[in-house]
Every structure is written in structure tokens, then in C-alpha cells.
Amino acid sequence: MKKILAAFVGSMALASAPVALAADATKELKMAYDADPVTLDIHEQLSGGILQLSHMTFDPLIRWTKDLGFEARLAESWERVDENTMRFKLREGVKFHSGNTLTTADVKFTFERLKQSQDFKAIFKPFTGINVIDDYTFELVTSEPYPLLLNTATYIFPLDSKFYSGQTEGGKDKSAILKHGNSFASENLSGTGPYTVTDRKQGVRVEFERFDGYWDTQSPGNVGKIVLTPIKENATRVSALLSGGVDFIAPVPPNDLDRIKRDRNSELVTMSGTRIILFHMNQERVEAFKNPKVRQAIAYAINQEGIAAKIMKGFATPAAQMSPAGYQGHNDSLKPRFDVAKAKQLMKEAGYEDGFTITMMAPNNRYVNDDKIAQAAAAMLARINIKVDLKTLPKAQYWPEFDNRAADMMLIGWHADTEDSANFFEFLTFCPDADTGAGQYNAGNYCNPEIDAMVQKANVETDLEKRAAMLQEVEKRLYDDAAFVPLHWQDLAWAAKKGVNIEPVLNVMNFPYLGDLVVE
User: Fold this and answer.
1) What CATH code is assigned to 25-57+193-265+498-519?
2) What is the DSSP secondary-structure string of 434-478?
3) How far apart are CA 52 and CA 61, in angstroms?
4) Is the alpha carbon torsion for 379, 384, 388, 392 positive or negative?
5) Which class would CATH give 273-491?
6) pLDDT tens across 319-360, in order?
7) CATH-assigned architecture of domain 59-162
8) 126-150: per-residue pLDDT in tens?
9) Which pTM value belongs to this model?
């Protein structure tokens, strides 16, 4: 197994001056996710798995609370200077795993790197810069009034600028971000978080150890070692928990919810989800997809409620839009529209009554029942004479194919990174623009500049009622245009053996704050 340089350097640097933790971190946690992080570079990919890793090994400036408020972390306070500027006071005395001390230089380095990241730069587009006042005071500046500044600050996990600067022995830039490539940052890590990575073998096992120099001495967390084993197969993952092989698993497949509830040694935690699951229809690959009637026909042909009831066993909420209830853009008037007869009529009106053949791709270990969902959708499309050549792949193989837009229809799930409706649109329906990062995950190559302009206008509207009305109109326009095929919002479920108190560290964003986990 590959040793991680950060852990070695950090243990050497801190051996002479250990910092006492609030709780004795003597417990070990064995956990199984459906996949392990594809990289250690937290700016290489914007995904749930990478955000889970970020909260284990780094700390953000601020983080979300269970009720979607904000909690101080590396930024101990903040105040608005003017309508475009927010000033932050950085916590003093925080150490990185390497032993280096956190300062505003690290925040500036991180901010500039995020602006260069292919996956993150669209989120940070509203920001024009960062003003460093002193070692522990800095300001984030936006080009216009921005209602989501604090939301975005939850994605600034300060990197160790000294650790990630310079060149490797092979002459490579340590700060480089390489998508699906081998870089220094993809294999080495130095954060401020509760855990260091001590061993890692991609796809097999990742070991984490509690960082002796962790700044949060008030944390109740008492887990000193975590072993993460990726188990793709749902049944195998659940069996590992029920047999005592692991202590904590996620996700729990709908088919096994009752099985875990019946087990006296296990506890199940469920939560309504905000991750939308949808299909894109690639208009650059399929001429027919440029016709809105064909797109509408596909939307009418796919039975969202049937998928939620039968495949998801009721553990999902059928969707007709991206914004879940509670988000500003959620439009109550939009309903799922399954109607095969209507779908056939639309295909006839569009001149495609005899149908056509398309390719479809989906992952088979990223979302709950993702491969089964794709299979069901393919069967439903056959009823309107669209023949589907379906291919499903493991997550690690799927994302490069998704980035290359390798199929005519592609499945994706999205949780709004800013807990706001606009984030869905910016990444999934905006006209693709490689320079700005807009439409980074728009695998349908859908483009409606008028709708994009509506979102951009909403993004500088600080009157929340006006902003909500604008975003709800965006959802209506996308619905009428059948810009994508919404399926459902995926509910969340985790399970652990009794005595592993996971409920307090779980959240709707699905990145558990494992540094605060208490094991009895």
C-alpha cells in the first residue's frame, strides 16, 4: 500500500509538541461506502465522495448545520464590510498535518486554486478576489451583491500552501490540478482536519488516523482510526454490517431498509434527500433531441412515480424539476407527467413515429439503484420506439466517459453545492462554457441564453421573495422545454451497529462530520 507523505511529515513535525484532544481517541471505526474517493486532491472533482473526504481531512471556513445555518470552523467570525465585501477573522493556532501553521496566505492560495479548478471555478465566478489584511484577517470580494457568499464559503477548505507549492523530485508542479491524472495533490495530503490519510490503495482500502494536532479540542469525537473499505455491491455491503465485519455503511439500499430495522444489533438513520437524479439528452449527438417535442415525449414516456415506487421501494420522491421542496426555486405547480399516449403523439408530431436508436450510459455504484433505474428507463423508451443501447459502468470508469459526453443519454445525480436552486442550473443546464465552467456537467449540451440570463439576474437579487419567484420561473421554463428528464430526489439512509452514534454527525448534504463521531 502507498504511504501518504503528509502523514509521515505531520507525525514527525508534531511529535515534540502534541496537543491534547477533548476526548480520548481510542476507538476504531470500520466503515463501508459504495466507493472510495477517486483522488486525494479535493479540487480535482466536485462530488459527494470528495466532499466527504474533505470534511474528514480538512476543515472549511464555515460549515452547514443540520438546519442549514452556518457554524464557525476555521473562520471564527465574519462581518459584511459593504454590499460586495465580507471580512473574515481566521482562527489562530491551527496546524496542518505537516506542522505548518494556518494563515491567510493559505486561504489566498486555496481561493486562487479553486478559481482554476475545472469543477469549482463556476461556483467561484461571482468572486473577483481576496484581500489579505493580515495573517488572520481577509476579505472575500464579489463583483456584485451576492446572496450566496456564505454558502460558497463552506467550500473553501484551506490547503497547506507550503506543502502544495514548489516542485516534486520529478520536476512536476505540486499545485497542479490534473483531472483523472496522477499529480502530487492526488496522492499526498496535508489538511487541518481531524484525520490524516496513512494508507491508501485505490478501490481496496483507505486508512485514516486521528491527527494529534487537531485544533478542535472541544470535539466530542473519540475515534482514533477509521478504515474505509469500498463495497460496490449493495447486498454485500449490508451483509458486512449485519455480520459485524464493518460498523457503519452508506448508502443503505431501499431493498434492505426493513432487513436492517429488524436487526437488533443495528440502527438505521433516514433523511429526506435533496439530490436530484436525472437524464441528459445530448443535442450535439442526436439531431432528434434538438426538437423540443421529442424531448417532451421522452419526459412523458418515463414513469418517475413507477421508478420511485418499484425500484426505489418508496425511498425516493418523484420529481418534475430540479429544486426540492424547501429550496427557493421549488415550483409547486410542476408535476410528473407520465403519459405514454401523449408521448407517442408528440413523437408523431415531431416526425419520429417510427423512432430511432440511441446509446445510454449510467454508473452502477454511484447512486442508489442507478443501474436498475437506467434499465427501467430504457424499457420505457422502447414503448415509443426509441431503442436504447445501454452500458453501465463503475463510478471510477463512468466519470471520464461522462466528461467526454460518450453517450446520447447520460445519468447524473446532483446535490446543490450551495444548497440553492441556482447551483443546479449553473452546472446542469447552462450553455456549456469551458472558460467559465458554466454547464460543466450539462451532458445534454442544452443551451438557452435567455434562461441563463434569468438565473444570473437572480444571483444578484438580495430580496429573497423576488429571487424565489425568478428561480421558480426558471424551473417552469425548463419544464416546458424538457431541457432534461427529471427522475426523483434520492432519499438518504445510513446504518451502523448499536453504540456507533451516527445520527448527530449526519446531515442532508451527506458528508458526515466523522471528526465528531462518538463510539460507545
Assistant:
1) 3.40.190.10
2) TTTTBTTT-TT----HHHHHHHHHHTT---HHHHHHHHHHHHHHH
3) 16
4) negative
5) alpha beta
6) 999 999 888 999 999 999 999 999 999 999 999 999 999 999
7) Alpha-Beta Complex (3.90)
8) 999 999 999 999 999 999 999 899 9
9) 0.73
